[in-house]
Amino acid sequence: VQLVESGGGSVQAGGSLRLSCVVSGYQYSTYSMGWFRQAPGKEREAVAVSGRDVSTTYADSVKGRFTISQDNAKNTLYLQMNSPKPEDTAMYYCAAGRCLLLEDYCMDYWGKGTLVTISS
C-alpha cells in the first residue's frame, strides 16, 4: 500500500485547508484510513480515523472543526480543516490500517507527510 499526501501549506487561523491522500495498492485487510500529526518536539497523535463502512472517530481537539472523508472512486482520503488554530501546526500523515481506533498501532502503512502551518 502506498500513500501520498498533498494539500499542506500556510494559512491564517480561522481559514480553511483541505489535505488529500491518494492510496494505491489497497489490500483487502486494510480496514481503516486515518490522519495523524506530529508537531515539533511532540509525539505523533491521531487526528481522525475513518472505517471502510464510513464510520469516523475524531480526536477531541479537532471535533467540530475537521472532517475526514473518503472518495473510493478516486482512492483518495481527505481531511477538511476548518477554523484551524496555531496549535494545529504540524506534519500531517496519512495512514492505513486494521482498526478504528485513534492509535498508531492500528496503522500498518504510512505516507511521508505534508506540512501544515497555521499563523495567528
Q: Tell me the radius of gyration.
A: 13 Å
Show unreliable segments. none
- Global outline: globular
> Roughly what percent helix?
under 10%
Work out the strand percent: over 45%
Cα end-to-end separation: 37 Å
Summing up helix and strand content along with how strands pair, one would put the structural category as mainly beta
Mean pLDDT: 93
Number of helices: 0
Q: What kind of sheet is the major sheet?
A: 7 strands, mixed
Q: How many beta-strand runs?
A: 11
Describe, in plain words, how this protein is organized in 3D.
By secondary structure, the protein is mostly beta strands. It is built from no helices and eleven strands. The chain has strands at residues 2-6, 9-12, 16-24, 32-38, 45-51, 56-58, 66-71, 76-82, 90-97, 107-110, 114-119. The strands form two sheets. Strands 2, 4, 5, 6, 9, 10 and 11 form a seven-stranded mixed beta sheet that branches. Strands 1-3-8-7 form a four-stranded antiparallel beta sheet, with no helix packed on it. The mean pLDDT is 93.
